[in-house]
Specification:
The complex is a heterotrimer of chains A (75), B (255) and C (352).
Chain A: E1 4-6, H1 16-20, E2 26-28, E3 40-42, H2 53-57, E4 63-71
Antiparallel strand pairs in A: 1-4, 2-3
Chain B: E1 2-9, H1 28-40, E2 47-52, H2 60-63, E3 67-70, H3 76-87, E4 91-98, H4 99-105, H5 107-116, E5 121-126, H6 156-159, H7 165-170, E6 175-182, H8 186-201, E7 209-215, H9 219-222, H10 226-236, E8 244-247, H11 249-252
Parallel strand pairs in B: 2-3, 2-4, 4-5, 5-7, 6-7
Antiparallel strand pairs in B: 6-8
Helix pairs in contact in B: 1-8
Chain C: E1 5-8, H1 9-19, E2 24-27, H2 33-45, E3 51-54, H3 58-70, E4 75-80, H4 84-97, E5 101-107, H5 123-129, E6 139-140, H6 145-162, E7 165-171, H7 172-176, E8 178-181, E9 207-208, H8 215-235, E10 240-243, E11 249-252, H9 256-270, E12 275-280, E13 282-284, H10 288-294, E14 300-305, H11 310-315, E15 326-329, H12 338-351
Parallel strand pairs in C: 2-3, 2-4, 4-5, 5-7, 6-7, 11-12, 11-14, 14-15
Antiparallel strand pairs in C: 1-8, 6-13, 10-12
Helix pairs in contact in C: 1-2, 1-6, 3-4, 9-12
Classes of the chains: A alpha+beta (75), B alpha/beta (255), C alpha/beta (352).
Chain lengths: 75, 255, 352
């Protein structure tokens, strides 16, 4: 399952999230979205630690972040 | 050991999916999301009524999924006060206004509503200029900041030096909650959400006037790319517009 | 059973508002308006289901009224001559948001701070000012405490039926004039509320905005308002009082000058000079039909007004220019004296 979901049509390419990502996995892509902006993309989802800094500073609410949580299974 | 995915960030229920008109990087978008998240996080069922002022905040009725009133410039507080007279405990009233509107032509109404301790939660978006009108001088513009009406930078004479309006409000006993956060750093935005939620929660018992200011950036009118604008505003406002929680009803309100 | 009561014009407005189901009053202490506010506060303390709020300035008061009306209140508000620009700003917003409001405007002498004595020099400002952005507001002009009470009910009826702001134009003399008012003579029927309110039902989103950035949406909104205006003008044709019929001499006046004109007309009739009086009790809509009817046999028209020809310019579209020659103006805050009117009319009759 995807852990970083980005609504690239909503993204305005401001680049604020690229500055706050501790793993530096967010970059503005070369493609252009429907509104003419370069939307952000995640280069390596496996590196994401789910801090949600990107979603917090995002002015357009383009992020959905899922964080892996350990589940203890009773044996 | 198994791993389960838990959602840590997503789209709030009270936020509309309509595209927003805000410029790229504008902190208005953050404030709107914080309002939606705070309303979603309320742990008691109550009608929420939003009132927004003029300027970039005037289109908020399209973006939030609860009752909204768009007020005339400078008059968001009187309109909200009228609503609160009539609705009383039936609704929580949240006011979202820009600083040019609230501290400029609306200052008289703001001060009097604070004096009367009207049960309102006011969120002021302070982005240091009048954004929608085209980046003109606003009451909180920093000394030396270039605006459309002060192209050579804001001079101290005749416009005066920057004033922290929260300090002004703190002298008023009717203010029961006052806080400021920076709407462009992740840590403070999280605090900001708590401030707005707290501001709404104290209205549950009609505890008086709650005021939150969100210090933001206006990259378009600063003519900087958003990340640069963040750095500029962060250093320029240091010491002038301090962030933090200044007053809560537990310690601040005169009984 | 209602007893007859001695009431000032301002107090009669307050009493009639209470009986018309008014639930809130917003005001700011200025001459004449204070009498209305003080009366309503006394009645509030009697527990008559009305809340009075004194705002920090008239503009705030008007927009608190806006907020309260959005949430379902039936609001009365009052301003003085000097705050007319504020009132007009509010009227424009009430028009745009389609909200009912009754706004009493107590007129005094102007321009500037002027004095607190009566004058009718703000009529055109209100008549045309209310049309900012193609908006409109009915303008009612009562002349005595009894007609003030009747006009107040009429104003609430129009405001609530058409979701409009209504102006009640009351001059300082009429506001202070005391009279025994028989309120049982006025039928205060229930005025139904037909509007959506903000902060009402849980789970439904209601929005009130007067900002329409899209040209098409704004054009639609304008069309809606124009249709409403057409409907209003079709249903409401204006009201007037006509005294005497078929006379060659017609006096035209409204407000306190109509009271004096009536007395002058009576004196002239006693002098064997038959004359009639036409008193418009609403200037918007203007009672055009009744006025043209009463003009039929008229050879001499006397316009009595406490302004620099404002009533004359209101009448101009309905009267041939040759008739519109006699105009009595009384400026600076004095009410036209009956003896002066009588002498003026007799003299002009002799010279013509």
């Amino acid at each position: 399952m995807k852990r970083v979901i980005i609504d690239q049509a909503r993204c305005k390419g401001c680049g604020l999230c690229t500055q706050v990502c501790p793993r530096r996995i967010l970059v503005l892509s070369n493609m252009v979205n429907i509104n003419g902006y370069h939307p952000v993309q995640c280069t390596d989802e496996d590196l994401c630690m789910g801090c949600a800094n990107c979603a917090t500073v995002c002015p357009v609410t383009a992020f959905e972040i899922y964080k892996p949580m350990p589940v203890v299974v009773a044996s | 050991m198994e791993l389960k995915l838990e959602q840590v960030a997503g789209f709030p229920k009270s936020l509309s999916e309509k595209p927003q008109h805000f410029c790229p990087g504008c902190t208005h978008g953050v404030n709107v999301r914080l309002i939606a998240e705070a309303v979603d996080a309320l742990d008691f069922p109550k009608k929420v009524v939003g009132v927004c002022g003029m300027g970039c905040s005037a289109l908020l009725p399209d973006y939030l999924e609860f009752d909204m009133v768009a007020a005339p410039p400078g008059l968001a507080i009187p309109v909200a006060e009228g609503l609160s007279h009539e609705l009383g405990e039936k609704a929580l009233i949240l006011v979202y206004v820009g600083e040019g509107d609230l501290y400029g032509r609306g200052l008289n109404a703001l001060i009097h509503a604070a004096i009367r301790g009207v049960p309102l939660t006011v969120l002021c978006a302070n982005n240091l200029n009048m954004g929608m009108s085209g980046g003109h001088l606003s009451p909180t513009t920093l000394l030396g900041q270039k605006t459309a009406t002060t192209p050579g930078g804001k001079p101290a004479n005749p416009y005066g030096i920057s004033t922290d309006f929260i300090r002004l409000l703190l002298t008023i006993p009717g203010v029961s909650f006052a806080a400021r956060f920076r709407g462009f750093t992740a840590g403070e935005i999280r605090k900001g959400r708590e401030y707005i939620l707290r501001g709404l929660q104290i209205q549950k018992f009609q505890r008086g006037f709650a005021f939150v200011e969100s210090l933001g950036i206006c990259p378009t009118n600063l003519e900087l790319p958003p990340p640069e604008a963040v750095k500029r505003v962060k250093t320029a406002t240091r010491g002038i517009y301090p962030s933090g929680l200044f007053k809560t009803p537990e310690v601040g309100r005169i009984p | 059973m209602d007893k007859k009561r001695l009431l000032k014009g301002a107090e009669a407005i307050g009493e009639a508002a209470l009986r018309s189901g008014c639930t809130r009053f917003y005001g700011y202490p200025v001459p004449n308006q204070s009498d209305l506010m003080e009366y309503l506060i006394r009645e509030e303390n009697e527990g008559r289901g009305l809340s009075v709020f004194q705002s920090e300035d008239p503009l705030s008061g008007l927009f608190m009224a806006y907020g309260a009306t959005l949430a379902g209140a039936r609001v009365l508000t009052a301003v003085n001559s000097i705050d007319i620009p504020d009132a007009l700003r509010a009227l424009s917003y009430f028009n745009a948001a389609e909200l009912p409001l009754v706004c009493v405007v107590f007129t005094q002498s102007g321009p500037g701070s002027g004095n607190i004595y009566p004058e009718q020099s703000d009529t055109l400002a209100l008549l045309y000012g209310a049309r900012a952005g193609d908006g409109f507001a009915p303008l009612l002009t009562p002349s005595t405490p009894t007609t003030c009470a009747a006009a107040t009910y009429e104003a609430f009826r129009m405001a609530e039926t058409y979701r409009l702001p209504v102006i009640l134009l009351v001059d300082a003399a009429c506001a202070q004039l005391e009279e025994t008012v028989d309120l049982s003579a006025i039928s205060f029927r229930d005025i139904p509320k037909k509007r959506e309110i903000i902060g009402g039902q849980q789970g439904q989103k209601r929005v009130s905005t007067t900002l329409h950035l899209d040209i098409d949406t704004m054009a639609e909104k304008k069309e809606l308002l124009q249709n409403k205006k057409a409907l209003f003008l079709e249903k409401e044709t204006g009201t007037c009082l006509v005294e005497g019929e078929g006379a060659e001499i017609l006096l035209v006046a409204y407000g306190i000058s109509a009271v004096q004109a009536k007395r002058a007309a009576d004196a002239l009739v006693a002098d064997q000079i038959p004359c009639a009086l036409f008193q418009p009790t609403s200037l918007y809509p203007f009672p055009e039909k009744a006025f043209t009817e009463s003009l039929e046999s008229v050879k001499h028209l006397y316009v009595i007004d406490m302004s620099d020809g404002q009533l004359k310019s209101i009448l101009a579209p309905y009267v041939p220019e040759s008739l519109l020659t006699h105009h009595f103006e009384s400026l600076g805050g004095s009410v036209p004296r009956v003896e002066d009117l009588r002498r003026w009319i007799r003299q002009t009759l002799k010279s013509s």
